[in-house]
Amino acid sequence: MQQRRRFSEKWLLGFCLGFVLAFNSIIYAGASIHEYRNEPFTTQSDSFFFHGGSEGLYASQPKSKDKTNKGKSFIRFDSVTFVRTKESTNKVNEMQQNTGLVEAIILEIKDSKKIGASFNKHDAICCTPILSKDISCKVGEVIIQNNPDNPGWPKRIKTFFEGKNEVVNMSPLSVDINSTGMYYLYFMICDPELKGTIIKGRTIWRNPEGYLPGKMAPLMTFFGFMSLAYLALGLVWFLRFVKFWKDIIQLHYHISAVIALGMCEVAIWYFEYANFNSTGSRPVGVTLWAVSFTAVKKTVSRLLLLVVSMGYGVVRPTLGGITSKVLLLGLIYFVASEALGLVEHLRSINDFSDKTKLILVLPVTFLDACFILWIFSSLSITLEKLQMRRSMAKLELYRKFTNSLAVSVVLSIAWIGYELYFNASDPSSEPWEIAWIIPAFWNLLSFALLIVICILWAPTRNPTRYACSEETGSDFDEEGVSLTSSVANIPDMVERKERMASTATDHTRTQFCFRVVDSCRREDKTRLLKKSWVKKVEES
Question: In this protein, which residues make up the domain named GOST seven transmembrane (predicted)?
């Protein structure tokens, strides 16, 4: 037991350390303000390359030529600075005016093949004297093929080092966005003497309606509608709760807690997105609260499904010895989902994020699979219990719940397949404008399941149709289905139940026979006593 306890403590400690490391990996709460903090350039073919950001941007509205930013979509360079090494400055002549070139290139993703000489079957990105004879380009600059349908794009902005200066500031300017699309910003260097150059500063990206990135903009409206939906559900549940407060069972309090958590979650997310959209920055505190409420609500929702599947409050008054295992699974799930949420929402905002969060997605996916396995295993046992007890009303209730849960699992699997296809598709063909429906679907699915539970276990004047009742005779006490038990043990458990039911039936029949024999003996004794009494009367 001590070794098992030590193993559980080490496992939990490992998850906690992972949570701390994930939190420490968060550099800043980025917004549509992309910050660069002494970031190095990396080698890309024959150039040095730095990815400055990527977002889906909508076209500026036609009547947006006023001095305010309302209705305008743009990318603004704000205090961007390049710093080169001392070794590179020692190799130049201080009398030279331009001693190093850094190019900022803004392009729409569909024009990505117009960067470099790939259109001329070359792998080069920078123009060389040989390539300048074959194609129209300037030696020492990035090769860009202009888009005939959109003159002036991809956009090129040049910044030169002067003399022996180690630092150069980029001119503050804004680039207006006049067509909807996925935009990328690259900083590129073709001069090999500028190896080791770093960048610092920030760029500001804005959509016509605010600073929310293109993929996130519809989520503010979505969470606004979800807030109203949770408010309506909470109001209906509260009125019914108050009306039948004398007949409330323990399960109703758990359902109320999930509804309250859901209301807080969607409300906080709405205000977080609204603040983000108006200011262009994400306060760490508000975002942390939103992520924490989401993790708590997801954990409590899964625990609610699990305890309902175990028959808590319907078949059994308590969970017994299985309570510790349920709470441990819930705690581990909370830590994993909290770490994933922090990494997703408190990092720099790029509409195409990297795959570093895959490490944190896998534990959450595994724990979700554990919940699903345990829930359906528990449902199987609960249905067997109700069928043995001939509790037809409760059996029908749980059959409806099982069918609803099965439909949600099928929809989840189908949606996961679609999500994998969506994320694996080529970025140039990804429909980023509808990408918001991926997180929105999971919120709608959990809300639909909550509505099903509220309907099936709604407070009524006569809660005996789902309230736990004391059973005698053949009832048996089990702790539920253990998370470590195999599904293959279920037939053995069912066979044991049938054996116990058969034994109980035989015992009842034996008791009946004994009662019949006792009744016959009493009748014979009464008959003999009557004859004796009549004989005495006749003699007297």
Answer: 218-463
* Nearest of 291, 124, 91 to residue 193 by alpha carbon: 91
The mean pLDDT of 427-454, rounded to a whole number, is: 84
Give percent above pLDDT 70 in the chain. Answer: 72
What radius of gyration do the chain's Cα atoms show?
Answer: 35
Nearest to 84 by CA among 111, 102, 66: 102
| Phi, psi (rounded to 5 degrees) for 476 | -135, 155
DSSP assignment of 97-149, as one string? S--EEEEEEEEEGGGGGGBSSGGGT----B--HHHHHHSS--TTSB-B---TT
Please give the single-letter amino acid code of residue 321: G
> Helix 2-24 to helix 358-389 angle, to the nearest 10 degrees?
130
Burial class (CB in 10 A: 0-12, 13-18, 19+), 4: exposed
- Supply φ then ψ for residue 178, to 5 degrees: -110, 0
With beta carbons less than 8 A apart as the criterion, state whether 81 and 168 touch. yes
> What does the DSSP 8-state code read for residue 312?
B
What is 419-452 written as a DSSP string?
Answer: HHHHHHS-GGG--GGGTTHHHHHHHHHHHHHHHH
Q: Are 453 and 254 in contact (CB under 8 A)?
A: no
The mean per-residue pLDDT over the stretch 523-537 comes to 63
What average pLDDT score do residues 374-396 get?
A: 84
Q: E strand or H helix at 74, and its extent?
A: strand 74-83
Helix, strand or coil, per DSSP, at residue 37: strand
Round to whole Å and give the CA distance between 409 and 453.
15
- Chain Cα centroid distance, residue 361: 9
d(CA 390, CA 256): 30
pLDDT band at 237 (very low <50, low <70, confident <90, very high): very high
Label each residue of 354-366 as H, E or C. CCCCHHHHHHHHH
pTM comes to 0.71
Inform me whether the pLDDT recorded for 106 exceeds 90.
yes
Place of tokens 């977002």: 55
- Alpha-carbon distance of 345 to 291, in angstroms, equals 8
Question: 6: part of which helix (H) or strand (E)?
Answer: helix 2-24
- Report d(CA 329, CA 336) in Å as an integer: 11
Which pLDDT does position 50 carry in this prediction? Answer: 93
